[in-house]
Design a protein that fits this description.
Helices cover about 45% and strands about 20% of the residues. By secondary structure, it is an alpha+beta fold. The chain has a single domain, classed as Jelly Rolls (Sandwich). It has a six-stranded antiparallel sheet with strand order 2-1-3-10-5-8. It has a four-stranded antiparallel sheet with strand order 4-9-6-7, with no helix packed on it.
């Protein structure tokens, strides 16, 4: 069988999957728009682009321990090139993440707890484990002089939190717009926002920006929880969710190999120096 014959079924299958993905995305967007008003009415907290921080007292321990969280990620940054770039997680992110400008160190994502990564950041993982209905969590490492274009999140049933870990100076040149509000990160401070509002990020400095990013369920009344959790259950059956879930173990393993190789080289170098 020649190469052309072998490639044809894959091409047909690829086009079918691409069209199916587009149909699912169009349906999903319509459903999300219809759900947004209902979930907003069911919310037990305000519906605003950036939320009043005092509505989430369970975040206090995370903010109070920010220096220990910073100390856990700091030694891992020398392996940042082995960390996945954001668009590796999902092709849906290719519009907002380009080249190697946005690395992530994932702890929880797409229904997976990444055990090796969590073991390397035990306190951070423990603190995140106390967040009610945690959905995702990762360290977001943004390169200097990079702009993340305007985009929106998937559902109003989830809120997003950023904790400033390493923020360039001057901080006002590293900022995020959520709706019409401008947010400037500060080291050791966190804020909560609704990422279904259009948002974009600028790092107009010569330093990288690092935040701990995590998502949790919006506090809602009974029927809001039912609708939201049913939607998430359906989402978990789509390529939007399944593709990243399949990729995560391999990406974690790649990083683990790189870290162990670097540690071995460092040990060998120390042995040679002391010999």
């Amino acid at each position: 069988m020649n190469t052309e014959t072998q490639q044809q079924p894959a091409g047909v299958l690829g086009r079918f999957r691409s069209k199916r993905r587009q149909r699912v995305k169009r349906f999903g967007k319509r459903l999300i728009r219809r759900m947004a008003g209902f979930l907003s009415n069911q919310s037990l907290v305000e519906d605003a682009p950036v939320m009043d921080r005092t509505q989430f007292p369970f975040l206090n321990d995370i903010e109070a321990n920010w220096e220990a969280i910073r100390d856990e990620i700091q030694p891992l940054l020398k392996h940042r090139d082995a960390m996945p770039v954001f668009q590796e997680l999902s092709p849906d992110q290719q519009k907002i993440a380009k080249d190697d400008n946005w690395h992530v160190f994932v702890l929880y994502g797409f229904g997976c707890k990444l055990e090796s990564n969590c073991a390397r950041t035990p306190l951070t993982s423990k603190l995140l484990g106390d967040v009610p209905r945690l959905q995702t969590a990762w360290f977001s490492i943004l390169a200097p002089n990079y702009h993340v274009p305007a985009h929106r999140g998937v559902t109003k049933g989830i809120l997003r939190c950023h904790l400033g870990i390493k923020i360039p100076k001057p901080p006002e040149r590293c900022r995020m717009r959520v709706g019409e509000e401008i947010c400037v990160w500060q080291e050791g401070e966190l804020f909560v926002f609704d990422d279904t509002y259009e948002h974009e990020v600028w790092n107009d400095t010569d330093e990288e920006r690092i935040v701990l990013l995590f998502d949790f369920d919006r506090p809602m009344r009974f029927w809001g929880k039912v609708v939201h959790r049913s939607f998430i259950a359906a989402l978990k059956r789509t390529a939007y969710f399944l593709e990243p879930k399949r990729k995560l173990p391999g990406l974690e393993a790649r990083l683990e190999v790189a870290i162990k190789r670097a540690d071995t080289l460092a040990d060998n170098y120390d042995d040679q120096k002391s010999a």
